[in-house]
Write a structure and sequence with these properties.
Elements (H helix, E strand, L loop, with lengths): L9 H19 L3 H4 L4 E3 L12 E3 L7 H4 L2 H11 L2 H4 L4 H11 L3
Antiparallel strand pairs: 1-2
Helix pairs in contact: 1-4
Length: 105
């Protein structure tokens, strides 16, 4: 007998593809039209929070729900929620494996 392929649900594949594409943009600064719009903010402060020393990208407050569905808004909000160890991973394979572990896939 043949086993059925183990396809991931569409929303999971969208999440993984969004983060993988955004990682490529962050690492290579290409395409320039997208990477030029990214603004890195360093949130260093003296309070002991999980984001105390973690740099993140600035996310403009959406005025409409349509903005929440666009690639940049989704990618930046997902990226900022990732642990620092995943954001700074050098290898694409390690990054993808880390995403699977982080999201329990």
């Amino acid at each position: 007998f043949q086993s059925k392929p183990q396809w991931k649900p569409v929303d999971t594949r969208l999440l993984l593809n969004t983060l993988t594409t955004f990682r490529r943009i962050v690492c290579t600064n290409e395409p320039a039209c997208i990477s030029s719009k990214l603004r890195l903010v360093n949130n260093q402060h003296s309070h002991r929070t999980r984001f105390a020393s973690k740099p993140s990208f600035r996310l403009e407050k959406p005025r409409t729900n349509a903005l929440k569905k666009c690639f940049m808004y989704r990618a930046v909000s997902l990226w900022n929620d990732l642990p620092l160890i995943l954001q700074t991973t050098q290898s694409l394979r390690t990054f993808k494996n880390g995403l699977n572990d982080h999201f329990h896939l």
